Amino acid sequence: MALVERAFVLLMVMAVAVVHVSNAAVYKVGDSAGWTTIGNIDYKQWAATKTFKVGDIVHFEYNAQFHNVMRVTHAMYKSCNTSAPLATYTTGNDSITITTRGHHFYFCGVPGHCQAGQKVDINVPRNISSAPTPSALVSPKSHSAPTVLAPSPNKAAPLNALKGGFVMLGLAMALFVSSYA
To answer: Is a pLDDT exceeding 70 seen at residue 41?
Structure first.
């Protein structure tokens, strides 16, 4: 009976891990341009087109010789103050998992870069409504064919997100097997 209980618990842990990880989206900051001052990227506009959720991954890709990423407070973000960042990332290939709702402020700490616009506010709404708003409903006066929207290529990389689920699955299986060794 203990074997059945352990198998059930293991199965539940794996199911929760895979479901949790598979719902995460991976966003590359700046899309194909990445994290840079070249090309006048409007990171405010970039972020405004995304719907961030807890569990999503924000990926900063940049040349580490010329840029970095600093997580800062709102006051520091507004003034481009680099004196005491909450966190600093310097690899050029930084993935940050969003773990809380609210605003998450980032900028490049290289002198002049934040002032030039290399900063982004990742906002995870505190109140997410699953019910459609009246403006989202189809009007009865509409005579046009419904529009089918294709998923945005910027949304998520589901296979990358599932990698974590497979790692969890492997660890859970190893734990299960080792408990009988």
So the answer is: yes
Position of tokens 């906002």?
A: 123
How do residues 119-139 score in pLDDT, each as one tens digit?
Answer: 999 999 987 554 444 333 333
Sign of CA dihedral 66, 68, 77, 24: positive
Task: Give φ, ψ of 18 to 5 degrees.
Answer: -65, -45
d(CA 42, CA 146): 31
Q: Give residue for tokens 């980032």.
A: 106
Q: What is the pLDDT, as a whole number, of residue 176?
A: 56
How many alpha carbons fall within 13 Å on the CB side of residue 91?
7
Phi and psi at 44, nearest 5°, equal -65, -45
Listed in sequence order, the residues at least 6 apart from 32 whose beta carbon sits closer than 8 Å to its beta carbon are: none
Q: Which residues contact 16 (CB under 8 A, 6 or more apart)?
A: none
105-132 exposure pattern, b = at least 16 Cβ within 10 A, e = fewer: bbbbbeeebbeeebbbebbbeeeeeeee
Stated pTM of the model: 0.62
Residues in the chain: 181
- The Cα–Cα gap between 79 and 32 comes to 27
